[in-house]
Amino acid sequence: MDTRLANTWRLTVNEKRFIETALSSGIRIDGRNPFEYRKLSIKFGREDGSSEVQLGQTHIMGFVTGQLVQPYRDRPNEGTLSIFTEFSPMADPSFETGRPSESAVELGRIVDRGLRESRAVDTESLCVLAGKLVWAIRIDLHILDNGGNLVDAANIAALASLLTFRRPECSLGGEDDLEVIVHPPEEREPLPLIIHHLPIAVTFGFFSSESLLVIDPTHHEEAVMVGKMTATLNANGDVCAIQKPGGEGVLQSVIMQCLRLASRMASDITKKIKDAVETYNTERALRKIKRHPTSITLDGSVNLKEKLNEPSGHNVVNELSRKHLEKPRLASAENASSPGNNGEGESKSSNFGRSSRRDGATSNFVGGAASW
Amino acid sequence: MEAKPSTANLVDKIVVPGDVVLDLSSMTNQTIKLGGGLRQECDSVSVIKAGKLRFSKPNKYWVESSQKRYVPCVEDTVLGIVVDCKADNFFVDIRGPTIAFLPVLAFEGGTRRNIPKFEIGSLLYVRVVKANPGMNPELSCTDASGKAAEFGLLKDGYMFETSTGLSRMLLSSPTCPVLEELGKQLSFEIAVGLNGRVNAESPSTVVLVSNAIMNSESLSAVQQKIMVDKLLQRIK
Predict the structure, then answer these.
(1) Do B122 and A30 touch (CB under 8 A)?
(2) Which of A105, A127, A273, B147 is 20 to 30 A from B132 (CA-CA)?
(3) What is the per-residue burial (b if ≥16 Cβ within 10 Å, else e) of B209-229?
């Protein structure tokens, strides 16, 4: 109990008074304008669907994973979307493990409402077999550092990870076409989710003086403010959700002003997210293309393959299509091992070759659960 | 455990826990004061905290390191936040592992009749009197001779938190470069606690001063001057 008492962060009377008086002259303690966001940086991990967002001191990671499940009875041909938050105790001394606190539940609700109610993620495209199998998309948000305004940063992390997530392609096969085959990423390129628009959450803080309003409050400002409101809008100007949890009453004109400001901020942030996702996608494409140039130079290897395949008696067309997929892998093996081993590698089953080379090359495109 | 014969070599060098710093059997008839980070074991003095070993004449040794957490040490001046008022003590948070006690009588001319009233959340400039590991530290608002000496409540200003290394740099003499540069153009008042808390007060430029100090942690002297110049130019 004593350590908890000692570890709690406290606000001094001096700070409270100072922040309020400075705000009445439009000065914020970190030198920003009242309607200015902190520096936003969006980074991505090596796996599809993992993002790391830093908004000033606030640091949040988002992970998106997909799983095939049975759909809900009342929505047999729609996939599901669920959000889980984890408030790690390393983010703030007041966060505890175990049951999520009220603010944790609220954060999950706001992000969830923004995505679900506005139908930003197309759930019908997640259906594989109506009534039997659909994709369940799960978003995990991990709070690493609480520097204030977790909602906005968490929303950006969720959106960034959704935009870069790739789910494996499924097709129907087997007898009756009722068997679902999930293609591994090496066989067929995984597909991105269909996202119609990006709902951006913008949080406002209200202070004891009527007209004092700030955007993106820091941790200290959050301790001093008397009310807050989160407006979720997209770049088209549609209001997706508004949340005002208690606090001081606010005039209607102030709310309209907030919504106007929020739509301006939303278009800025949407652009930043899209730019970051663009760079990630080009990098991802480059990573794939890097393997191909080496296969073009090794024309001799193609002839060698054909000679070895004939005795197996497979369908020639089948072999050619397999060759297309295996060419990049053989090419990378070419660099690793001597050309003498080329024949050996080819005659073994493709699965074996794939797994052994995966350890050597960087492992990308794992469409399953995120392992970190 | 081998005692090092030449201990003067370790002064101003980085030491790690376990290093034996002094061999007392070879230094008889001397009083040596040990500061934080050092422990006496029979005849040798060894290090218990990683950092740089420092020596000040005539006889004080201590280990200096910079952390975000503060370990209370006797005779340190710190900034504390009042958490609670009890009958005999104020509970004061000094950013250490435990809450510290400030006896209600530890003020200049303090008697049972004129106990000061501090509201919860007030900022105090206090001195650490007792700091034994495992026990709550004890504080005082007077200096060793019983005078007030500027200890007590800090009324105005803005408090921010830094690491212990930065607060020691701010208190060093000669004046640290960032304060010197700021002082050439602005007038302000700061109270620095060795526990990493700084309270800055100024009629108009507190935000600038606090941000300049917070940014100066990892910069060299020249870089600090450049940073301050840039900041000052922006407001002109």
Answers:
(1) no
(2) B147
(3) bbbbbeebeeeeeeebbebbe
